[in-house]
Specification:
One of its GO terms (molecular function) is protein methyltransferase activity. Pfam families: TP_methylase (PF00590). By secondary structure, the chain is an alpha/beta fold. The chain contains seven helices and ten strands. The strands form two sheets. A five-stranded parallel β-sheet has the order 3-2-4-1-5, sandwiched between helices. The protein has a five-stranded mixed β-sheet with strand order 6-7-10-8-9, with helices on one face. The chain is elongated and about 55 Å long.
């Protein structure tokens, strides 16, 4: 059995009780170096992987087949079912072989921090893929996880190209000590490298205070 455990946006305080219990009971726990450290737990058998899917697949197979482990715990940042590992692992190993423990996603965390509801929210990703920008800027409320190729600045430029100027809330390093949350818009966003981030687009003319 593969237990995919959502560990929240970052700090150990974001771990649910169920997630802590799964990690404690795991025969081995696979995660990136940052993920393993962020749990703040004394893991008996931690296994580090690079963050690449092919590496994770190999590590899981090694434990299940070569080491004959009955259970493997795989750490997933945020919630595994929101553009996370659960779908990939189910595609690889089958649904019956995977158990998912929900976590607090970075998107949920950011909405809570800015005191904005998630009702009627459209969620998508610019992480490793190009979103449908024509659709995004027609939706009143959008949340995206991003990467180094398509980040907050690039999203803002796509909006300007289409004649839109949405409000943008950018959350970086959410839940960590160096957390940063800023509000801007497509026309005034700073061109720079943004750290691990989530972007909220408000296309309805609303403004946060």
């Amino acid at each position: 059995m593969i237990n995919v455990v959502g560990i929240g946006p970052g700090k150990a305080s974001g771990l649910t009780i169920e997630a802590q219990d799964r990690i404690k009971k795991g025969q081995c726990v696979i995660g990136t170096k940052r993920q393993l450290a962020s749990t703040g737990m004394n893991i008996i058998k931690p296994i580090v992987y690079s963050g690449r899917m092919e590496d994770l697949e190999a590590k899981i197979k090694e434990q299940l087949i070569l080491n004959q482990s009955d259970e493997v715990v795989v750490l997933a940042s945020g919630d595994p079912s929101i553009y996370g590992l659960s779908k990939c692992l189910m595609d690889l190993f089958g649904k019956d072989a995977v158990h998912v423990t929900a976590g607090i996603s970075a998107i949920q965390y950011l909405f809570a921090r800015i005191k904005l509801d998630m009702n009627d929210l459209y969620i998508t990703s610019a992480h490793g893929k190009r979103p449908d920008f024509d659709l995004l800027f027609k939706m009143p409320k959008v949340a995206l996880v991003t990467d180094g190729s398509i980040g907050p600045y690039e999203i803002g430029q796509e909006a300007i190209l289409r004649g839109f100027n949405p409000r943008m809330i950018i959350g970086e390093n959410l839940s960590y000590d160096d957390e940063s949350i800023q509000e801007t818009d497509a026309k005034t966003i700073t061109r720079k490298k943004y750290e691990m981030n989530v972007v909220i687009l408000l296309n309805d003319g609303s403004r946060l205070y």
